């Protein structure tokens, strides 16, 4: 069984750690429910600026729990997929950055859990695989969409159909891994998130929303959405304080944003 450990390793950083070493942090029904509830609570918590998602041991997440597969009724399977969909949608819709710190293998739904996050950090030994076809299944948790958006449709189809394994360096080259952290992985991931947590939270949330919608519609649509976001942000206290600091040669990196 996998459990969800929740802690606050730094100001503004809320960490969710999957802990199920025996199953490589597989997503069983119980932990899926815990993750959905935790994400929904984070959305309403103003003290949380960044969500950090990671795993325990040699795995980030091995995907679905194979022990529950092969015997489910169609109704039970639908329930499982609904939980997975709720996780994907909760991360995508959360107006706060979600950083996946992939400490080891990320397979199947575990890969898609990383892909739906806003930023992927990887340990040098991390690897990624769409393993569904190997189990006689099709991808879920948005894998067909997310991987295609990340690396292009033809590369994605090849990866989905062959089950190709990507290294952390492959991920950087293909563009879905932001950085490979070669030092103390947990500490460096927290440090990365702590930098994000010091930035203006309303601006971060709207930037995520705009980026997630960027592929929808036309350039004109994107420009319209950007104009609306800028109109809102230009009226915030955070923006006004940043302008004042800039004009008075202040250190923008040292500015304490309030989310107001």
Automatic annotation (TrEMBL):
Enzyme Commission number(s): 5.3.3.18
Biological process, per Gene Ontology: fatty acid beta-oxidation
Enzyme class: isomerase
Keywords, sorted A to Z: Isomerase, Lyase
Pfam families (UniProt xref): ECH_1 (PF00378)
Entry keyword Isomerase: yes
Entry-linked PROSITE patterns: ENOYL_COA_HYDRATASE
MF annotations from Gene Ontology: isomerase activity; lyase activity
Domain of life: Bacteria
Family, similarity comment: Belongs to the enoyl-CoA hydratase/isomerase family.
Name of the protein in its database record: 2-(1,2-epoxy-1,2-dihydrophenyl)acetyl-CoA isomerase
Species of provenance: Cryobacterium roopkundense
